[in-house]
Amino acid sequence: MEVFIRMTSYITESPIQLLKPASSVAFWYANMNDDQAWNTSKYFPVLNDPVQAQLVIQQEQQLLWIAEHGDTVLFHHKPEDEFVAYVEMVRGQGTLPHIHLSFIDDSDFSAVQHKQDKEPVLLPFLLTEQVRQWSQNNGWTLRYDDADYVRKLNDKYQVRRFVEKNGFAVTKGYFCHTPEQLEEAYQMIREQGFTQAVLKSPHGSSGKGLSIIDSELAFKKMIAFIRRRAATFELLIEAWHPIQRSLNAQIFIQLKEVHLLAITEQRIQERGVYVGTDYAPQIPTELRETYEKEMLRLGHLLQQQGYTGVIGVDSIVDELGDLYPVIEINGRFTQVTYLLPFVDTQLRTYAFAESRYIRVDAERQYTFSEMKALLDEALEPDPRHRYVIYTYAAHLHAERWHYRVFLLFLGQDAGSFQHMIDRFERFTLTPLEGVNGK
């Protein structure tokens, strides 16, 4: 294959060797919805979509891109055989892990064969008390087993207090305990020149646990809803800073070392919903050096508190160019973590690498090969610009098939690369003529 000139990559290390010593074999487990159980207080309306919740569970397929041959991925849902064969074709023959359908209360793993001299290690997406107990029952080792601290690390309120205490730049925000305090805080945010605010609950990712307030009318409706629920509470309201860039850092914390694995840039919709990642962002040297310094400082502070493991840190640069390095900490794996080893190999060949996903539905079922054929027709990949499907989630509900399809785009020419992404974001199952421009 022709090798193209590579742009700057901020993937510095693969997490595999750090997470899984050579003397161990890994059980990978993606409990991606578990953090929602931590949100016990419902002070503002939250839309729950059971169909999308089922599709999110199937994002466990991303484990197939990081787990090694000899490892086991513990799935809730059996992926299509065609998709599994496709992953092996892309990764290489004989590289896939074992696939074992499992639920967290299962204890019979006699069907999973491993070398007896290997230490079994459980690598969950998110460490919870239930996962910790499950690991103990099966005789698996955890790299970190303090589930209570992990919950605190994933708490937006705890994180804000932590970063304020340690001198990181923070966005304008206020903790409120009564409707009157909330009204006062909102008015202060408006008086400081911000047109939007965000109300946060302690837990939730990818836009969950957030309510964007984009007008005074929206705030009045929200405060009326809250008054009907409670007279006292704890809520965090923050100014919605106009964003120039949304950066993300992947950090691996060990007992004596802190590793900055990668710096990526998130693609975020206006209302804070994650839609994809740029794995090779162009970042000015001064900003990059400042950001790296702050991320390593954060890692060492968490290390001093006894935490070890992977974290993902969400950060922003506002329209004034000011860096707010710690908007949110995800004390767990992220979707970026799972793709890092594969993306790193691709950036040795391609200059650009970005992920995107779409949600589509149809009256009939589309097999993986049928969907890929439609995507090939719509996106027109070539040797210089191609895509890899890294998740193919499908769910039947109310006589319609719903799909959540994740693609990694790879390319050399910026214009052609972006054109392929634009076509994907317009992709629909019917009619396809509008996508192909015919």
Task: Describe, in plain words, how this protein is organized in 3D.
With 438 residues, this protein is of the alpha+beta class. Among the domains are: 15-150, no CATH class; 172-239, 2-Layer Sandwich (Dna Ligase, domain 1); 242-331, ATP-grasp fold, B domain (D-amino Acid Aminotransferase, Chain A, domain 1, 2-Layer Sandwich). Helices cover 31% and strands 27% of the residues. It has 13 helices and 17 strands. It has helices at residues 15-19, 50-57, 81-91, 129-137, 147-153, 156-165, 179-191, 216-229, 285-304, 335-346, 368-379, 414-425, 433-436; strands at residues 24-29, 72-75, 98-101, 119-124, 141-142, 173-176, 197-200, 210-213, 235-239, 243-253, 258-268, 274-278, 309-318, 323-330, 352-362, 385-397, 400-411. Strands 3-2-1-4-5 form a 5-stranded parallel β-sheet, with helices on one face. The chain has a 5-stranded antiparallel β-sheet with strand order 12-11-10-13-14. It has a 4-stranded antiparallel β-sheet with strand order 6-9-7-8. It is globular. The protein starts with 14 loop residues before the first helix and ends with a helix.
